[in-house]
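Issue: ligand-bound run for zinc ion - logging full I/O for the record.

Environment: standard queue, default settings, no custom constraints.

Inputs:
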Amino acid sequence: MRDQIRKFAIGASASICIAFAPTAPAVAAATADRITILYDAFGDDPAMKKDWGFSALVEIGGRTILFDTGDNAEIFAANVKTKHVDLTKIDFVVLSHRHSDHMAGLAHVLSVNPHVKIYAPKEGFGIYGSSLPSSFYRKDESLPADMRYYGGAPPQTMIFGAAWPKANFELVDKTTEIAPGVTLLALVSDAPGTRELKELSLVVGTPDGLVLVVGCSHPGIDRIVAAAATINPKIHLIVGGFHLVVATDEAIGKIVVALKDTYKVAYIAPGHCTGEPTFAALRRAFGADYIYAGLGKTLQIAALVPPGKRGEGPHMNGEDAATYRRLARRDDPFGTGAWKRAQASAASQSADLRP
Ligand SMILES: [Zn+2]
Ligand SMILES: [Zn+2]
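Outputs:
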């Protein structure tokens, strides 16, 4: 009889394993998925050089993406070396926006990998280069040729140079899926001081939801998350700068509520321009789901179990446990022995009645 109890226990634990088995393949496939912070002004790794700015190496789904390049090429190069990052092996670079604390390290990237694809926001007359049809400006044919642009015969397309003329830029104007499951969100800031600034944010789909990497969030982290949620409302992780360094407690509170309650973001790993009071507020709100993302830190994505799959096993309350103990004390806890005996006796009776 004791064997039966043991069998039940094994059966129960086996069914628990089965119940949580669906997480296993996704986690197994994603064990290499990670994000390493290469540039930031806070951190606990003495081997890394702190400076204002942001860069992260995003390794997800077999791709290696360099998101932003920091504020100073020498410091960026030193941090890349400390973390043993091989910049010749990256698939592409994303420059979130034209602020120097996100792109000054590009000079170093290009020195080791001059032809790497670089996604950057498309801006008229921007430093990444641009072009416009020459029809954009008004003409005055009454003027003599030497007072007219291009002597009155402009090229059809006017090309404006980039600060890195030989770099392989691909300029992004609107939200675009650049590879299966990898999307660049293109938003424009409406905030005083950065009005019309375009910014790209990186969204990568995973079996547990979206991983969102943001540079400075000038268009507003709430607007960026809202845009990401149109791809998949399940936001697994947000990493990067939320641009709340000078925000009031009230403004911070609204963002925290939006991330935690409206968008139900599972994990939050703020950095860069998120701001010290916002770090504190997010840590209070997210508790164990606040992931420390200081300079040099590597976030293992597979270790971040989504809320719906956090399997401590079926919870047994006090009453269940007492019932279980009472049943376990019995010889035939689930009545299966009695049922078998009844079946056997019925069978023998019917056998006896056989002609
Ligand atoms: Zn910025
Ligand atoms: Zn910034």
